[in-house]
Amino acid sequence: MKIMCVGDVCGENGCNHLRKVLPVFKREHSVDFVIVNGENSYNGKGLTPKTARSIFDSGADVITTGNHAFGRFESYEYYDSCENLIRPANYPKTAPGRGYTVIDMLRYKVCVINMLGTLFLDPLDDPFGMIDGILEQTKDCRIRILDFHAEATSEKRAMGFYLDGRVSAVFGTHTHIPTADETVLPNGTGYITDVGMTGVEDSVLGVKKENAIEMFRTRMPVKFDGADGKCKMDCVVFEIDTKTGLALSAQRFTVR
Ligand SMILES: [Fe+2]
Ligand SMILES: [Fe+2]
Questions:
Q1: Interatomic CA distance for residues 59 and 50, integer angstroms
Q2: Model pLDDT for residues 88-133, shown as the tens digit of each residue
Q3: Which domains, and CATH codes, for the chain?
Q4: Which of 145, 180, 204, 224 is the most exposed place for a label (fewest CB within 10 A)?
Q5: Which residues are within 8 A (CB) of 152 and not within 5 positions of it... i.e. 6 or more apart?
Q6: Packing angle between helix 153-163 and helix 127-137, nearest 10 degrees?
Q7: CA dihedral for 226, 45, 79, 171, sign (positive or negative)
Q8: How far apart are CA 91 and CA 103, in angstroms?
Q9: Which residues are bridge partners to 102 per DSSP?
Q10: How far is residue 247 CA from its own chain's centroid?
Q11: Could you give the residue numbers annotated as active site?
């Protein structure tokens, strides 16, 4: 089976581009299951039931998030009620929603896990300490994918190798910059350090480049506006052997 993982969708432009290109891509590449990171789908910070529904309507089976998971208050109830929307598992237990989900696709079940890195990010529970418990709880599910939402390439690669042979794939999100290291690790786990983003290409992480330049020049708070212009969708497709749950290939795409 083919599992597609899509980089952080940024704002309305990102949502609209996803709607335009995802259905066609799925059809052309015979994709069976789609995971989309939606943490920036509302104006770059968080998501709302409306932006989440737009991502589902475009063809996502599961939406993952990250450090912006709780950027919008109106999403909190939706996290509790929607099984296909997850937030990093290493938030405190009091946080709304769930950190992993198992989706029954009839012929097979797919488990999607979300975790936040702690290097240069919020100091949540240790993701390495926590992932073993989640793998134990989900051991009946052969196909398991982790969205590791983290800043540091080192932390993400270490997680990939830590889980090599134990999960189907690990893909990184958060930096919005795709890395060229998509691969199948030695013991059979599909891997990429960062899958990239979905939104305006001529931007700094989806934000107007002028805003970002001003912030770095003045070191003062600056209001961030979503950029306008041509969009792209960065994604990776992992082919998974449903008998072993391990990856056969990893392929990266940018769809303009
Ligand atoms: Fe992001
Ligand atoms: Fe993020």
A1: 15
A2: 999 999 999 999 999 999 999 999 999 999 999 999 999 999 999 9
A3: 2-198+231-255 (3.60.21.10)
A4: 180
A5: 117, 119, 120
A6: 30
A7: positive
A8: 22
A9: 111
A10: 18
A11: 68
Cα(142) to centroid(ligand 1), Å: 28
**CA–CA gap between residue 83 and residue 68 (Å, rounded):** 19
Contact of 236 with 228, CB cutoff 8 Å: no
How far apart (Å, rounded) are the C-alpha atoms in residues 24 and 16?
14
User: Would you place residue 254 in the very low, low, confident or very high pLDDT band (cuts 50, 70, 90)?
Assistant: very high
**Around Cβ 229, how many Cβ atoms within 10 Å?**
12
Q: What is the mean pLDDT of residues 158-166?
A: 98
Handedness of CA 147, 233, 3, 104 (dihedral sign): positive
Per-residue pLDDT of 176-223, as tens digits, reads 999 999 999 999 999 999 999 999 999 999 999 999 999 999 999 999
Q: Which of 234, 241, 104, 253 is nearest to 169 (CA)?
A: 241
Ligand 2 centroid to 116 CA: how many Å? 9
Distance CA 98, CA 81 (A): 10
Q: Are 75 and 37 in contact (CB under 8 A)?
A: no
Taking the centre of ligand 1 as the mean of its atom positions, its distance from the CA of residue 7, in whole angstroms, is 8
Taking the model in full, what pTM does it have? 0.98
What's the residue count for the chain?
256
Give yes or no for a contact between 139 and 163, defined as CB atoms under 8 angstroms apart.
no
Give the residue-averaged pLDDT of 62-68.
Answer: 98
71 contacts 99 by C-beta, under 8 angstroms: no
